[in-house]
Structures
1.
Amino acid sequence: MRSAFYISDGTAITSEVFGHALLSLFPTEFEHHTISFIETTEKALAAKERINKATSRGGKPALVFHTFVNNENREIIESCDAVLYNFLEPFVAPLEKELAIKAKPTTHRTHSIHEKSYDYRIEAVNYALTNDDGSNVTNYEEADVILVGVSRSGKTPSSLYLALQYGIKAANYPFTDDDMEELKIPSFLKPFHKKLFGLTIDAQRLIDIRDGRMANSKYSSARQCRMEVREVEKLYKNEQIPFINTTKLSVEEITAKILTETGLQRYKY
Amino acid sequence: MRSAFYISDGTAITSEVFGHALLSLFPTEFEHHTISFIETTEKALAAKERINKATSRGGKPALVFHTFVNNENREIIESCDAVLYNFLEPFVAPLEKELAIKAKPTTHRTHSIHEKSYDYRIEAVNYALTNDDGSNVTNYEEADVILVGVSRSGKTPSSLYLALQYGIKAANYPFTDDDMEELKIPSFLKPFHKKLFGLTIDAQRLIDIRDGRMANSKYSSARQCRMEVREVEKLYKNEQIPFINTTKLSVEEITAKILTETGLQRYKY
C-alpha cells in the first residue's frame, strides 16, 4: 500500500486537511502518517528516515504533503525518496501580486493561539459542558444557540464541536419520554424560542443507536423511537423551529448546517 | 478591507483551512465569510451575488477560496467579480499521473461520515464526558490516555478535542489542593502509569485564569498557583510522566504534541 505523510513544523493539521482532500478524490487506499513539529535538523532527518523506509517498504515512492514555505528543514524533506506536494507554493506568488504585499512566512500561525479567539473557545466549552443535556435551565440568556432533540440525535457532540471549533456557546436540551404525552416548548425555553434549533434522526438509526446502549428496553424499542421522532418533528413544524435530520451527517456537517441556517457568527477564524 | 470567501458544496472546512493557511502568510486583515453547501444553481447564484457585492463594497476584488473540482456550479462561481483560488486543481493531474488512477471527484467526502471513524468519535466523546475531571475513577482500563494536571491547565478542552477530532478516549484527572501536601500518583491511577500524560502551565498565566473565575480566593492566589505548579512538575519528573507546558499553546497544538509524544494512533483519517 502506498504511504502518505502529512508533515509540518507546526501541528500538521493543515497538511492533513490538504492531503486528505486530495487523496479522497482517488478510489484507492493509503497508509497514513502524520509527523508534527519538525522544528530541528534532528527531527527533519528522523522524518526523512521514516519516509525513506516507507518508500523502500512499499516499493513505490511515498507521498509527502507539507506546507514548509521558507525553512532550512525544507531542503532535508525535499531530499527524501518521495513525491512532494506543497500546497502553499503555487498560490503564494499570485497572492503576493494580487495583494501587493510580500508574504511573511511564520511557522505555527494557522493553528496556534490567537488570544481573543482562544478565550472565546475555552469559555464556550465550559458553557457547553454546564448546559449539556438540560442539566441547567437557568442560563439560556448566554446561549448563542440551544439545540433540542430526542436522546441520541447528536446534540452533545454538536454542542461541543460548535464550542471547540467556533467559540459558539451552544446549550442543549433533550425531549424525553416524560415530555411526549403533550409535547410542547418548556416554559423556561419559551423566552428563547429564536435560539432553538432542532435535530431529528431517522427512527431506524435511532433504534440501532439506542439498542447499542440499552438493548431490549422501552427506550430502544421501535415503537418508542418512532413515536418520539414523530412527536418532535411535529413540534418543530408547528412551532417553526428550524431543524435538520442528522442521520447521514457527520458532526462537521451538522454544525456547518447549523451555522448556515442560523447565520451565527463564528468567533474563530 | 479585502473580503475573503471560503466556499464549497460541502462543509467548506477544507476551503477554510486552505484559505486561512495562505492568508496567514500576509501581514494584513481580511473580512472572512464562509458559504457552505452550495449544492444548487440557486445557491450558487446567491453566493455569486454576495461575492460581487463584497467586491463593489471593498473596491477591490474579493478573494474566493474553493475546492470545486468538476461541478456545474463551478462555472457560476468562476464568473464572479473576484480572484479565485482552487487548491485542488494544481495537484490533481500530477497525482493522477503518479498513482496511475483517474480522480473521481465526489462531493462531501472529506468531512462526511465514514461509518467506522464516526462511531469511534461519538464513543470517545461519551468516554471523555463521563471520565472528565476525575468524576469516575473506575474506568481507566478503557482510556487511550489519561491527562493529569492542576485545575485550569487545559485538561478538559484537550480531552474533548482528542475525542472529537481523533476518536481517542482521553480521561482526565485533576490534582487539587487536597493532594498537594504529599503529592503522589493516586492508587487508582497507578496501574495505568503508562497512560498518564501531564499538563503544566506558567504560574502567572494560571493566576490570571483562576482570577477570572474566582478573584481574591486562595484558589487564585499567587502563592497557591506557584505551589501547585511546582508540586506537579516535581511529580512528573520524579515519576517520569511525560508532560508539556500549555501556556502558549492552542488546543490544536496541545493535542498534536500529545499525539507526537505518546505515539497514539488517531482513529480518524
2.
Amino acid sequence: MNLFYVKPGDVQGKSIVIDGQEAIHISKVLRYSEGDQVIVTDGLGNEYDCKIINVKKKSVYLEIVNSERHTETNPKITLCMGIIKKRDRLEFAVEKAVELGVSKIVLFEGEHSQKGRVREDRLESTVVSAMKQSLRFFLPEVFVEKNISDAVSKHAENTKFILADETVAKSDRDKKGQPSELFLMVGPEGGFSSSEREYLKNFNPTFYSLGGHRLRAETAAIVMVDRFVRLQ
Amino acid sequence: MNLFYVKPGDVQGKSIVIDGQEAIHISKVLRYSEGDQVIVTDGLGNEYDCKIINVKKKSVYLEIVNSERHTETNPKITLCMGIIKKRDRLEFAVEKAVELGVSKIVLFEGEHSQKGRVREDRLESTVVSAMKQSLRFFLPEVFVEKNISDAVSKHAENTKFILADETVAKSDRDKKGQPSELFLMVGPEGGFSSSEREYLKNFNPTFYSLGGHRLRAETAAIVMVDRFVRLQ
C-alpha cells in the first residue's frame, strides 16, 4: 500500500492535484494511470481514498471517492534533541521518531555540540517520507532552535517534561496519570553544559534512565520515543 | 572514556600491542603518549586497564596494570534479520543492535528481498566501533547466511525463538520463565514468502507484535532488540 502526501491547500472540494516529484513518482515509477486508486493524506489527519482522473507529465488529477478523519494519538509526543553533527545520523533519528509516532521534533544547538549546519529542507522531506512509509496521517512539525532555552521555552509549555539522563541510575517514579502532551528531551552529543543543566532544573523535569550501555544520541532518541509511545 | 579493541591473540601475558588504524588513532588523533592510561578489551569479556609503554608510528605497546573479567548478560540475544539492500540502513541496524546489547547477528537473504551485496568487512568494523562506543566488553559475531533455513537451522538451536510479525495484532502470552538464549527474528524487506512462512512454523515460534505503525526493517530490528534487552 502506498500513501501520498499533498499540502492541505491542494485539496479543493472533491478534487486533489498532485504536482512535482510526487506526481512523477506516480506516473513514471509506479506507472499508475486513469482509474487507478490511490490513498492520499494532507498530514492533518485526513485520509482520502481517490481515483485517478487524469495523468499529465507533472500533475496527477484525483477525485476523492471516500474520506476518513483520523484522530491523533494521545498523549502527543514531542522529541527534543541536540543537533547531531553527522547529517545521516540526524536524519535517521528524525526518520525513526516519525515512524514510531512523534507529533513534533525540536532540535537545538547544545553548548557542547560540534557545530553542524542543519538542512531544514532535507529534514522536512525525511519527515514526509517517514510519515508515508509508516502509514501515518499526521505530518510532524520540525523546529530548529538556536539553544536549549528557546527549545524548552517555546515548546515545553503545558507538557510533561521527561529528561533522559545518563547520570541517573533509575527513572523517577511517576504515577500522576495521563498527561495530554509529553516533551521528551535527549541530551546533545557531548552532553549538557553545566549552565544548560542549571537551566533545565527550573522546569523540574522527570528524570528517565535509558539504562545499560552508553548510547549514541540518535539511539537514545529512538529508544526513548519507542518506550513512551508504547506507554500510550 | 575511550575503549580500544585488540584481537585476543594480541594479548601476551602482561603485554598488549595495538597495531594498524587503532594505533594511528591513539598516536595521531588522540595524541596519547608514554605513561598515559588506556582501557582495552579483547571482545571476550576481558577489560584491561593499561599503561602506554611505547608509541611507535604504527604500533602502540601497552602494559596491563589491572584486569577485570565481565560476565555476559543473560539471556544472550541473537538478532536475525533479512539483508537490507541499502547499505547505510543495514549498517545502522547492526550498529544499533550492538549498542543495545545483542550477542550475535544473523543476516539472511529473503526470497522476496532485493539482492544486495553485503560487505562483511564493513559490517565487522561497524560492530567493533559500536562495541567500543557503547563500552561493551563482548564483541558480537555477525553471520551472513544465504537463506532463511540456514539462518534458523544453524543459529536458533537451544534458543527461544521469537518472531516479529506484522500480521498478528497481539503478542503471544508467554510466562515460561527465563530462557538462556533468545533468537529474535525480524522479517526481511518485502516480507516473508509463503514457503518461508511455512518453514518457520516448524519451529513453533512465539509471535510478537511490534504494534502501531508500519515500520521499516531496520526500525523493527532496533526496537525489538531494545524491548527484549530491557526484559532482562
